[in-house]
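Q: What does the assembly look like in three dimensions?
Context provided by user:
Components: four
Sequences:
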Amino acid sequence: MSAVSKWEKMLNLDRRWIFLAIGIASIVPFLIGFGMPISTTAEVESIFDYVNGLDKDNAIFIGFDYAPGTQAENTPMGVAVLRHAFHNNVPVFITAYQPLGHGMALGALEYVTNPAIPGFYQSVSFEEWADLREAGITDKDELIASWESDGNALPEGAKGWVFEGRDFAMLGYAPVFSLVILGMTASIENQFPQDANGNPLIEMPMLREHKSLREVDLAFTTSGSSACRSWIVYGREKIGLPVAFGVTAVMATDYYPYIQSGQIIGQMGGLRGAAEYEVLLFENGITETTDKAFTGMDVQSAAHLLIILLIVMGNIAFFAGGFHKKTALKGRG
Amino acid sequence: MKRTVPLMIVMVGGILMMVQYFIPHQYSQAVFTNYTQWAPIVGAFALILGVGSLTRVHSHKIRRKTKNWQYSWAVLIPLYGMPFLAIIWPQSLAGGMDSPSIFHFFFMHIQVPIQSTMFSLLAFYIASAAFRAFRAKSALATILLLAAVIVMIGQVPIGEIFGRWLPETGLWILRYPNLAAKRAIMLGVGFGILATNLKIIFGVERNWLGGAGK
Amino acid sequence: MYETIGIWVGAFFTLAIYSFLYKENPIYRLAEHLVVGISLGYTMAITYDITLKPRLIEPLLSGNHWILLVPAVLGILYITRFIPGIAWLSRYPIAFLMGTAMGVSFPLTLKTDVLRQLEAAMQPFYMSGMPWHEIFGNIVMIFGTLAALIYFFFSKPHKGLFFGTGSKIGIWVIMLGFGATFGFTVMGRISLLIGRIQYLLGDWLHLIE
Amino acid sequence: MRKNWIGIPALMILLLLPALSVAQGVDENLTPVDDNLSTVVTEDSIAATLTELQPVAEEQLEEPDPGLDVSGAITVLDKDNDAGDQLLVSFELPADTEGIYAYNVYRRIAGEEGEDAWNLVEVIPADKLPEFIDGYDPDYPISPGVLYEYRIASVTVDDEEFFGSICKAEVVPEGEIYHTGKTRVLIAGGLFMFLIFYYFGKAQKGTKMYLRPIAGIQAIDEAIGRATEMGKPILYVPGLSYIEDVATIASLTILGRVAKKIAQYQTPLMVPNRDPIVYTIADEVVKQAYLEAGRPDAYDPDSVFFLTTSQFAFVAGVNGLMMREKPATNFYLGMFWAESLLLAETGSLSGAIQIAGTDAVTQLPFFITTCDYTLIGEELYAASAYLGREPKQIGAVKGQDACKAIIMGFITLALALAIIDIAAGTHTLDWVRQVITMPIVD
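A: Here is the predicted structure of the complete assembly.
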């Protein structure tokens, strides 16, 4: 009897001790920083290779289709692809499936163009380069040359210029977004007459060159819900728009059928997927360092080990204590 | 009027859009284009339901002074304050570094931290459940836990220390057996959704009518 | 300055939520209520700015899109939900959106989730040059899909070679799939915690990069 | 339930469409994959409806510079399966392509005059095929029934244009009334509708249909018995979702059955609710069950109660209940989110027998590892159909089963063909796959 009570005591341990343990396990690796290497998988490499094959004549969509709750997983994915596109001068249309995603998209764009963060891109707002645009200079290389000859110098540490309306357009949120995707297969401008900053899309060089989703080469959706499916159902199945997923780990396993059937090019699953993309960016010289997702993977290792340990210990206590006999049901399969 | 008309609207709308899919003709496309313009407008008004019921619940609490009624102000004030801020300061909606605003501040520095932290609480709960509840009580639960452990170690860098076979096995589980299970579920769920669609369109399933009086 | 205050406020609310792990308390409750109000308030403002203004109000004011009054009136009917006696009128916009959405999604769901999946399930399991683990994987995939479908088949008892063995293999495959989901869910939850710790230790305290 | 007949006209409308398309003279059934996206116009289709265009001599604009040759005849075809807003345009390459960087394709409405009427609708690089689909550009749409004229300019690297002759299209764009690329979806959709409504009708007529017993149901009965023996209450959580959710509806059906059994044994029951509407319905269900069991006197009005709408507060409330009342059996049936973990953890600590059931795939693993029995996904619906014997539910389960059987048949067929192909070196599977593969069309 006393043996049982010992196990029982162990199982009834105040859970705040476990909370403390997981707290410690997720802080300490940050302070030490192992930086363990990460190998990349085919699912992520295929997205990377695809984006890497694009240049200034192509265009992509990045959908920030998540709410703040899952930003830790989704934002690094969006940021990584955004940086990749900026590096290759691929114009990016930024959208959001839900209202709160609008704010997340703004946040990600701000992160990539914030001079305080290393490896940023200096953004030039739509009004600032209005003169050059009206003079018909829209090719990226010519644009940079003219812009710099006007006396603008690239700030120290910046990776390059990005021009609003040429390199990115913040379209943002629109309700019943699945229908918006459908509408954009005919015309992007009809669905978004203005961008989130009130600039008319019609004047944007990137829209002049890519008027509908037919002229867009990829839709990358980063999402924490089934919102990402809309891009397949309404974009891919209608006009063959190539789609790639960046989904939270919770959703990731559900979408493997889409990879095998070729409905999506590839998928980043959770923080690990984002870390892989960061590694690919780093290895290919597109960024100078890896970012938050990669640093997080050390903690992920420690926390996983702790949780596995807890499962094993819990099961030992459970079976050694004989608790399994108490609740056994005959009807159980 | 109360039940028949909505049921008719559902049926006519549903059949129309279904048939429309198969007709590329310009008249059919015109119907569809109109619909894509109308639906977001109608859909935008659906917010009224959420705002209305939230207002009702919390003003009720404040009036009745039920337990913890003071907190209801913490719901109602930002609920109406946010749109008000947006109206008096419209350009602030775009947010960004260039135009810091109270509106943007509330979202980025209150909403985002709270919501992401609430979700991260689950990390703690999962750890506690790992110790106290996840049991290999049956053969099936044992397979599940084993697969979970392999995938968990395989997905993190430390897994490579045990050798390449571990992450590879994890990926193999993901790519084949997992895919098979998820495809079967996807097909089953797909049929379920389709059957529900049909039932609603043809008025067999009417639960959605509930909650607005007979 | 703006950023600094923002990060301090954010850190305060982050800790407020974590205080719940120790014990429920008034600051947690305040944060919990605030988030409900702010998210809906934000949604209202964004919806007005991005949908109603450019798609309804501006075209109406420009004077030649009177037809848009139809969806507007339909939308406004939602308000009747809160007026006893005519609450049933709010069923009209719901019926419009639901009926049409289901009509639109029916053929598309059929195509994406059923026919395309069938197509992909019918791929040959062997092609010359495939490594053995891929061939084995493909065979597992085909039999696994079949078996899992048998498990969810309710018109026949799970007895005999086909249905009995099939459903047993099916549930094993399903369990492997759930194991993967389990592992990934744990990973996802930890990732969210990592995000917050990066915020607290990095953005706020500058202890890490 | 007179609504049943409504399916028939709808089905007829859908089935009429292919007939119409046949009347249109389109052979759609086994056409090889026609991908509308590809801008490749096959030689055959051009030959079929070739419209040689006569150069309009008097409108010859300028003599081409001898340095750059211009393209020859332009061919314009109406595109199939469109809304009359697309044309297939192709042209003959110049004999001498020396120095040509690209071709600018201009279009105007026939009969319009002046240079302003011309719109540049496409630029084709010299190394691409000289054909494209006109009408995708939202700025220069094509209207059905309008006659257009085209002309093509050869362009040098320096953007100098050398115009060819103007050609008038002989076809006008027209919309079609049936999309031939969607026949497979139509057949599948029609078949699905037929099966669902067929089993629906059958169930409604009262035909007895077999549903296999589900192991979970036995576990439910046993768990109720266990609670009775111990003299402890039973906790039943009907999910955290709303009444629209199929899982909630299924859960309420099972609740009726559980409550009936409980009424016979006179075991205390607790049903906490998160949604007010679900609460009212759950209350009615339990009351009705006690009445049917002949024990209306034993019904306790406080057994079904509304807790709170906030997700985590609801969990805290239920967990408190579990620790105080120590129920012998916990049922979690319906729709759950992240709270599944918290509920089941507390329940397992309190030593209760736990039976769960949900269609939320991401929560199922947690239920399976923490509960004694779990109804997985569709098993929940099937269990409710089995217990409720409601024609609506049984018909749906049977109809979906029939569809699954078809899917299984196809997969088995593919497997068999794959084996035959390996053994005999044939390509039968490829052929079958080509028949079922749907093109991407809009």
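Follow-up: The longest helix of chain B spans residues 102-132.
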